[in-house]
Amino acid sequence: MLKKCASRIYLFLMFAFLYLPILVLIVLSFNDSRSKVKWGGFTFKWYTGCFQDEKIMAAFVTTLQITFLSAIISTLIGTLAAIGIAAMKRKGQAIFLGATNIPLLNADIVTGISMMLLFVKFMDLGFVTVLIAHITFSIPYVILNVLPRLKQANISTYEAALDLGASPLYAFYKVTWPEIRPGVLSGFMMAVTMSLDDFSITYFTKGAGVNTLSTMLYTELRKGIKPELYALSTILFFAVLLLLLIGNVRPAKRSSERFDK
Amino acid sequence: MSKFKQQFLSGPYLIWIIGFILLPMAMIIYYAFTGSDGTPTLQYIAAIADETNRKALGLSLWLGVICTVICLVLAYPLAMILSNMHIKNQSFVVFIFMLPMWMNFMLRILAWKLLLSKNGVINSVLTGMGLSRINIINTPAAVVLGMVYDFFPFMLLPIYNALTRIREDWIEAAADLGAGKITIFFKIILPLSLSGIISGIVMVFVPSLTSFAISQVLGGGHVLLIGNVIEQDFMQGMQWNAGSGLSFVLMIFVIASMALVNSFDKEGEGTVIC
Amino acid sequence: MKKRMLSTALILALAASCLSACGNAGSSGKGETLTVLNYGKYIDEDALKEFEKETGITVKYEEYESPEEMYTKYKAGSIDYDVICSSEYMVEKLIKEGEVLSLDYEAMDNYKNLDPDILALSEAYDKDHTYSVPYFYGTLGLLYNKNEISEETASSWDCLWDPTYEDEVIMENSVRDTFAPALISLGYSLNDTDESHLKEALKILKKQKEDKIVYGYYVDETADAMIGEEAKIALCYSGEAALAMDENENLAYSIPKEGSNLWIDSWFVPRSCTNQTNALKFLNFLCRDEIARKNFEYVEYSSPITAVNENQDEEMKNNAAINPDKDAVKRCEIYTSLSDDEASIYTKLWQELLAQ
User: Fold this and answer.
1) Which residues on chain C are in Cβ contact (under 8 Å) with A225?
2) By residue range, what is the domain housing residue C234?
3) Does A223 touch chain C (CB under 8 A)?
4) Could you tell me if C189 and C97 lie in one domain?
5) Which of C216, C228, C344 has its CB closest to that of B221?
6) CA distances from A61 to A108, A166, C18, C128 (A)
7) Where in chain A are the domains?
8) C17 in contact with B at a CB cutoff of 8 Å?
9) Are C118 and C142 found together in one domain?
10) Which residues fall within 8 angstroms of residue C178, CB to CB, at 6 or more apart?
11) Which chain A residues have a beta carbon less than 8 Å from that of B266?
């Protein structure tokens, strides 16, 4: 009983550690005073301010574009690559997986700088360079999610389908696809997560006037804190909560696959 | 489709690897080993021994280790409690603990800036209760706190996953054979969760070793990490060769520390992450 | 299965919304653009909008913190900036390097609005007025809390090195501005580039940090921290000080008696400019009286546009942060540009200070 009590207390403490900072942001977003510590009455003005702030809205739109374009493209390239890699001999697989590990192993700052050095030489920094960078660091997550599924998939069913006269594409769609689909989906979700949260790589590869939420916030935070940012935090928090709640009730399991060996 | 043809599906990825992974790496290595006039030199690699860089790297390693240890100490018990909970909505509870991870990384730092600053939330609560204030903003402690908060989920999740994979009958069998709780923990639970611990350590240590934004925002110019030196070399000092040299050294450090951590992984599956 | 369908549908919906957003971005991306690089918090964004509306030119606006950062961004060559605003010593450096295009003042009918006195000062870095248009000018000084610090104390740089003010001083996160008070305190010029003198200055700054006097090295955050009374003294630009004083009446500004830095930030058109006509249109727009006043009210630095200074109320006229008196200006020096070697010495010493 004592043990149970202790673990409840510990759970509660960790919960407080994780959520108190967010709670402070939420409370302050309704505070009519600019002060961090004095309550000046209830207001929605920071919310209207947040939606009217072009910088915040532009960064928000850019973030969505980059995130979903990069997730879609990297899922496509990554899934195809995984199918190709699965058909390779050991040596080929080792080479491909080795290269796939590079962006995973490297520190973000090194990946960002290396891409910046390349882009500066051959193209203008801008939206496209950020997109390319995000695709690059997302592909490995897709491959690592899809490849194990392909290995589990039973090749003989696919071959049987071929023997029975199915076209390769039809056999793939009917036999292989259902088996790898969960992997593709979780790869996609991880690409989204990683892209949304990235700061360092975007920071080094972005061009003039292109800002994702992370880089916009970095410049804003160094200028002092605008209360509109509290409103932004609150909106984002509840949006994420809502999306994840309706999207899937098994989110922890799914996102956890990134850490699986 | 024959196996041979199937391999061609990874063609686009091959092009991507060459263009956007290998070529950039080659660029960084080229800059790291040449002077600004293009002649080969080792001076930018050796520059890590300069007092400034050595101090910055030392501090980064130190803070990285502290952050990783704190995360591990906090996350392991939590993961154990979570994995032992036998309630219907277990995954929902885990999800609650992971949720902050999906909020923007910068906003999480903003929250800590609010809490910690000299006239911030924590201090006004403390003075309100008649206690003395804590001055931790703009110190390494604030940076560590920010890092722990930011990277904590990356430690929790892999450990939790490893723990849930331990089957209960193994533990019951051990108990039937007379093992005490402590023995069970050290002989069964800990070894079986080791792979999760190692993934967690890697996922927390690497970003904390190389971060520069957290130290910039919560360190107020007092905490210079190796990431900050590199960032300044590129964004303010126009010293690309020096910055590349340090990046290269940092890369070596990351790889070396991961090899070190991985050597403890008895399963030794070869891949370092995931 | 149902759940899976739901999540697939969700993803598709998100993807569709994203694609439509891209479609919008694509269509508005057409037409002429102007890429502008400026200090942070240094223009009223309504003015930018007005310019866009008036000319149909889309402004791509990018901000930076320190002149060194600007130089790096420009020199990297990865973005073709059309018009840049920076401090006099960086402008001088870029002029010397042949990176700045001469301006056709004929095309700028608002050029006449500029105060001739300020133009005369700008000769220090742009000898024949061929390359630059002054935007704002101001001084470097001390912003202090009147309840904690006497006017007497704040009239000298010495208070920055006084251990009584433990954890109460904010310095600038910008190399030359932080070295300037140290050099002046030692009796050197703030343009001194003698390495041994710079090392002496570094010693003072290191000691200041060792004694835990420095609360933080900030740039644009200074005003916010001073308004919140997180520190008692801040090394600060005049306009930043004026803004903070508007928000918190306990704050005051002084230009120390030992002398300080007078700076002029100017616009110039770099060689990377792809459309000079538009760049000139933009500069001309900024020199228009109403626009200059709008920007002045937003940033509160001293404006070189004559009309802006004529219609100020008494309180503003007497505000040392906005209108420094003539004697104070005489004590001030303008930064001269640094050669690459000198700049790299500065960078090295600066990193040594930060790493301590």
Assistant:
1) 224
2) 138-261+330-355
3) yes
4) no
5) C216
6) 23, 44, 8, 46
7) 54-222
8) no
9) no
10) C171, C172, C205, C217, C235, C350, C353
11) none
pTM over 0.90: no
Task: Verify that C178 and C107 share a domain, yes or no.
Answer: no
CA distance C43 to A128: 28
Dihedral sign, CA of A110, A111, A114, A119?
A: negative
Q: How far apart are CA A84 and CA A104, in angstroms?
A: 20
Q: Give, rounded to a whole angstrom, the gap between the first and last alpha carbons of chain A.
A: 36
CA distance A3 to chain C (A): 37
This model of the complex carries an ipTM of: 0.88
What are the start-end ranges of the H helices in chain A?
2-28, 45-52, 54-86, 90-105, 108-122, 127-152, 155-163, 168-171, 177-197, 200-205, 213-221, 228-247, 251-256
Measured distance between the N- and C-terminal CA atoms of chain B, rounded to whole angstroms = 30
Region class of A165: left (phi > 0), else alpha (psi between -120 and 50), else beta: left
Residue B188 to residues B20, B168, B270: CA-CA distances in angstroms? 44, 11, 23
The closest CB to that of B13, out of A77, A114, A229, belongs to: A77
Distance, CA of C215 to CA of C218 (rounded, Å): 9
Q: How far apart are CA B64 and CA B214, in angstroms?
A: 12
Distance between CA atoms of A258 and A248, rounded to whole angstroms?
17
Contacts of B20 in chain A (CB under 8 A): 115, 118, 132-133, 135-136
Interface of B with C in 91-150 (CB under 8 A): 117-119, 135, 137-138
> Superfamily assignment of A54-222 in CATH?
MetI-like (1.10.3720.10)
- Paired strand residues for C254: C142
Cross-chain Cβ contact B110/A225 below 8 Å: yes
Phi and psi at C110, nearest 5°, equal: -95, 0
C192 and C119 assigned to the same domain: no
Domain boundaries, chain B: 40-102+152-262
Sort strands C169-172 and C100-101 into parallel, antiparallel or unpaired.
unpaired
Cα C112 to Cα C104: distance, rounded to the nearest angstrom? 13
CA-wise closest residue to C42 among C122, C136, C113: C136
| β partners of residue C141 | C236
H or E element at residue C84: strand C83-87
Residue A66, helix vs strand vs coil: helix
CA distance linking residue C78 with residue A120, whole number of Å = 5
- The verdict on residue C250 lying in a domain is yes
Angle, vertex CA B151, rays to CA B149 and CA B153, nearest 5: 95
Question: In degrees to the nearest 10, what's the CA dihedral of B217, B221, B226, B231?
Answer: 70
Q: Which of C15, C77, C221 sits opposite A222 (nearest CB)?
A: C221
* Tens digits of pLDDT across chain B (274 residues): 567 788 888 999 999 999 999 999 999 999 999 987 888 999 999 989 988 999 999 999 999 999 999 999 999 999 999 988 877 777 778 888 888 888 888 899 989 988 998 888 899 899 989 888 888 899 999 999 999 999 999 999 999 999 988 888 888 898 899 888 889 889 889 998 998 999 899 889 999 999 999 999 999 889 999 999 999 888 877 788 999 999 999 999 888 888 888 777 655 443 334 3
Number of domains, chain C? 2
Q: Indicate the residue of B28, B110, B200 with minimum beta-carbon distance to A117.
A: B28
CATH number of B40-102+152-262: 1.10.3720.10
- What are A196-200's contacts with CB under 8 Å, separation 24+? A196/A63, A196/A67, A196/B102, A196/B104, A197/B101, A197/B102, A197/B104, A197/B105, A198/A108, A198/A134, A198/A137, A199/A108, A199/B105, A199/B106, A199/B213, A200/A108, A200/A109, A200/A111, A200/A112, A200/B211, A200/B212, A200/B213
Q: Are residues C156 and C201 in the same domain?
A: yes
Question: Which chain B positions have a beta carbon within 8 Å of C225's beta carbon?
Answer: 117
Beta carbons of C337 and C254 less than 8 angstroms apart? no
